[in-house]
């Protein structure tokens, strides 16, 4: 079933069987929790995270006060639930016995950082802190090569993350080709279209600026705080230790 | 703590990933990097009894300089390698010449 959902999410042409993220998301998170955090379900959620775009359903509806949009808020809820369940499962026993979950979990949050940075960084800080203080530190002590590389790759992504890069990728994401031009359009309509496009471009620029500011605010508040936590002496000692 | 880390029993094939992570850490907050490094290495006998305080000082100086250098990652690797070899007690062995 998960394979089928993934294939429909990846398909460019939406069909009758294409999974609706707002319906599938809660179902997958519920299944993820009830199945003791199955990596297969988490893998499907990862695909869902990658395929849902910031501009879906709500283009231009960015809240100037905090940069939120309905999609970003929805994604934040989804990510928070995944974090909560994964951290609970990973801290319940030895990480060595859940390597598959470790690998999928870190790969998923890396994708979330690239696709939905606002949603990831605005997850309640206690949940993020628990992830870093418990799961990341423990994963850095893994003997298993795959699990160890997964956490190292995630940390590289996390540390390299910068608000400006996100703002640039965000603007690229939101750029849409104009499909309104028609061969029969009159000159007046074309001029009007150009004016409209310029107006839309202005709105997009403003939206991108607000988005960049919001991301910068979150990174300076929560994200960089966590990076500092991550860069604690403990991580250094684990990395170099004997 | 189990035998771990780049200065310990972890496979040397993981060294590139670990070095890259270290390098990114150094670039993320250069002003704090030296402090973190000195604090992490402060304990006597850490990470290995074969490493002296002079080796640690040399490592800190090398990494701080390398993180600011243009070809930082390469310089970073070059600074880290002698320290890793010494802490694994592999100086003057065939492993010294392996990349």
3D structure, described in words:
The complex is a heterodimer of chains A (242) and B (99). With 242 residues, chain A is mainly α. Chain A is 73% helix and 0% strand. The longest helix of chain A has 44 residues, at 187-230. The relative contact order of chain A is 0.11. Residues 165-182 and 218-225 of chain A have low confidence and may be disordered. Helices cover 59% and strands 0% of the residues of chain B. Chain B is built from four helices and no strands. In chain B, α1 (15-28) packs across α2, α2 runs antiparallel to α3 (53-68) and α3 (53-68) packs antiparallel against α4. The radius of gyration of chain B is 13 Å and the shape is globular. The mean pLDDT of chain B is 78. Chain A binds chain B through residues 140-141, 143, 145, 148-149, 152-153, 155-156, 159-160, 227-228, 231-233, 236-242, and chain B through 1-8, 10-11, 14, 17-18, 20-22, 24-25, 28-29, 32, 36-37, 39-41, 46-48, 87.
Question: Would you summarize the structure shown here?
Answer:
The complex is a heterodimer of chains A (242) and B (99). With 242 residues, chain A is mostly helical. Helix content of chain A is 73%, strand content 0%.
């Amino acid at each position: 079933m998960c394979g089928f959902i993934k294939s429909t999410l990846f398909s460019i042409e939406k069909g009758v069987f294409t999974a609706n993220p707002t319906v599938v998301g809660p179902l997958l998170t519920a299944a993820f929790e009830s199945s003791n955090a199955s990596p297969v379900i988490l893998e499907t959620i990862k695909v869902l995270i990658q395929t849902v775009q910031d501009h879906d359903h709500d283009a231009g509806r960015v809240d100037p006060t905090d940069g939120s949009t309905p999609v970003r808020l929805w994604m934040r809820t989804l990510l928070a639930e995944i974090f909560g369940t994964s951290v609970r499962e990973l801290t319940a026993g030895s990480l060595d016995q859940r390597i598959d979950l470790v690998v999928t979990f870190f790969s998923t949050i890396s994708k979330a950082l690239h696709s939905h940075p606002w949603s990831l960084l605005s997850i309640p800080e206690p949940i993020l802190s628990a992830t870093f203080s418990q799961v990341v530190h423990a994963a850095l002590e893994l003997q298993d090569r795959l699990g160890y590389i997964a956490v190292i790759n995630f940390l590289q992504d996390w540390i390299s993350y910068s608000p400006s890069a996100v703002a640039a990728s965000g603007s690229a994401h939101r750029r849409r080709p104009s499909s309104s031009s028609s061969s029969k359009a009159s000159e007046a309509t074309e001029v009007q279209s150009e004016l409209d496009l310029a107006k839309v471009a202005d709105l997009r620029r403003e939206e991108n600026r607000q988005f960049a500011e919001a991301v910068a605010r979150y990174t300076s508040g929560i994200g960089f705080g966590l990076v500092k936590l991550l860069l604690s002496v403990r991580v250094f000692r684990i990395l170099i230790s004997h | 703590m189990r035998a771990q880390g780049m200065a310990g029993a972890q496979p040397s094939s993981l060294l590139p990933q670990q070095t890259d992570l270290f390098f990114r850490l150094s670039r993320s907050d250069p002003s704090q990097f030296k402090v973190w490094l000195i604090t992490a290495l402060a304990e006597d006998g850490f990470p290995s009894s074969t490493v002296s305080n002079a080796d640690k000082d040399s490592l800190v100086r090398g990494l701080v300089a390398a993180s600011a250098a243009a070809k930082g990652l390469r310089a970073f690797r070059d600074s880290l390698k002698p320290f890793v070899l010494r802490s694994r007690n592999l100086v003057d062995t065939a492993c010294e010449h392996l990349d």
